[in-house]
Design brief:
By secondary structure, the protein is α/β, with parallel strands linked by helices. It has helices at residues 24-39, 52-74, 88-94, 126-133, 155-170, 229-232, 248-255, and strands at 3-11, 14-21, 46-49, 77-81, 108-112, 114-116, 182-185, 210-213, 224-227, 237-242, 272-278. A six-stranded parallel sheet has the order 3-11-10-7-4-5. Strand 4 (77-81), helix 3 and strand 5 form a beta-alpha-beta unit. The two termini are 30 Å apart.
C-alpha cells in the first residue's frame, strides 16, 4: 500500500499520528477515524473534516438548514458573504444539487461582510467571486442582492452608504443594531476576519456598523469596506471557514481566546459561532 502523507493531532495528552492512504475507501475510513479522534478534544462548535471539500459540504448543510429556519420564522434569510479563497467551493455547492433545490432563493437577502475598493468586475472583488460561483446560478431577485457601493471611490463614503442600506433593509427599531441571520467569516494568517486587522482602528469601532479601512498586510493593497464587531456580534449565527496548515497556529490562538486577534473577538451576544475547519487547520488543537 502506498501512503501519501502523515498528519498528527494531539488528543488530550496523547499524540495521535495518522498515515493517509493515497485514495479510495481506505482513505475515507482513515479520515473518518481521524476526525472522530480529533473531535474528542474539540469544543462542540468546531466541526472538523478531512479537507476543503468536506468542510464546504458541512457548511452547505448548515446554511441550508439555517435558511429554512429563518424563512420559516421571519419570512426571509439575511446573509452576509465573505471573500478570499476558502468560501468558493461552498458557493459552488450551494448552487448544486442536492442543496440548490432545498432552498427558497426568493427569500434570500444578500450582503457582504467586507469588500475591497475595486470595481465589481475586478478579479479581486468579493462580489465577483460570489456572483460567478453562486449568484448567477440561482434565482435570488436582483433587488435583494446588496453589494458595497465601491464605485463611490471613497471607503468612508461607501461604508456610510452601505450601513444605511443595511439599516433600511434589515429594519431594526431605533437604537438597535440590525441582526443578520448568518454572517460568513474567514480567518487570515494574522488573525484578521472580514477586513478587521490587528491594531487597526476599525477593530475598536463601537458606534458605526460599517467603516472604511486602509489596506491590510495582504495583497491587493487597496482600501476596504468592512463590517465592524458590533454588527458581526449582533448576528444570529456566524460561520467561520478555515483550511490549511498555515491556519493551525492562529486557529489555536483564536479558540484559546487571544483577544489580540480580531477573529477571537467575534462573540455574538445572542447568537452562535460555528467553525468548519479542515484537518490541517485543526492540527494544532487538542
Amino acid at each position: 500500500m502506498r501512503w501519501q502523507s502523515r498528519d498528527s493531532w494531539r488528543v488530550s495528552s496523547l499524540q495521535v499520528s495518522i498515515d493517509w492512504p493515497r485514495s479510495g475507501r481506505v482513505r475515507q475510513d482513515f479520515a473518518r477515524i481521524s476526525m472522530e479522534s480529533v473531535a474528542l478534544a474539540l469544543p462542540p462548535n468546531v466541526s472538523v473534516a478531512p479537507d476543503l471539500e468536506g468542510i464546504s459540504q458541512a457548511a452547505a448543510e448548515f446554511w441550508v438548514r439555517s435558511a429554512g429556519q429563518a424563512t420559516g420564522r421571519r419570512g426571509r434569510f439575511t446573509v452576509a458573504l465573505a471573500g478570499g479563497s476558502t468560501p468558493g467551493r461552498l458557493y459552488e455547492l450551494l448552487g448544486e444539487q442536492p442543496w440548490r433545490s432545498r432552498v427558497d432563493w426568493s427569500k434570500w437577502y444578500v450582503f457582504w461582510g467586507d469588500e475591497r475598493l475595486v470595481a465589481p468586475t475586478d478579479p479581486n472583488s468579493n462580489f465577483l467571486l460570489a456572483q460567478e460561483k453562486l449568484l448567477a446560478r440561482v434565482s435570488i431577485p436582483a433587488v435583494q442582492i446588496y453589494r458595497a457601493p465601491t464605485e463611490l471611490g471613497d471607503p468612508d463614503l461607501a461604508a456610510a452608504r452601505y450601513e444605511q442600506v443595511i439599516r433600511d433593509v434589515l429594519g431594526p427599531r431605533a437604537g438597535e443594531v440590525p441582526r443578520f441571520d448568518l454572517i460568513l467569516q474567514g480567518l487570515g494568517r494574522d488573525g484578521h476576519t472580514a477586513s478587521l486587522f490587528p491594531g487597526f482602528p476599525s477593530l475598536e469601532e463601537q458606534g458605526r456598523l460599517v467603516v472604511g479601512s486602509p489596506p491590510g498586510a495582504l495583497p491587493p493593497a487597496v482600501p476596504r469596506v468592512t463590517f465592524t464587531l458590533p454588527l458581526i456580534n449582533a448576528a444570529r449565527a456566524v460561520v467561520f471557514l478555515a483550511a490549511g496548515v498555515d491556519k493551525a497556529e492562529v486557529l489555536r490562538r483564536v479558540l484559546d481566546g487571544d483577544l489580540a486577534l480580531p477573529a477571537a473577538r467575534v462573540r455574538p451576544a445572542d447568537g452562535r459561532v460555528q467553525w468548519f475547519v479542515d484537518a490541517a487547520a485543526a492540527s494544532g488543537l487538542g
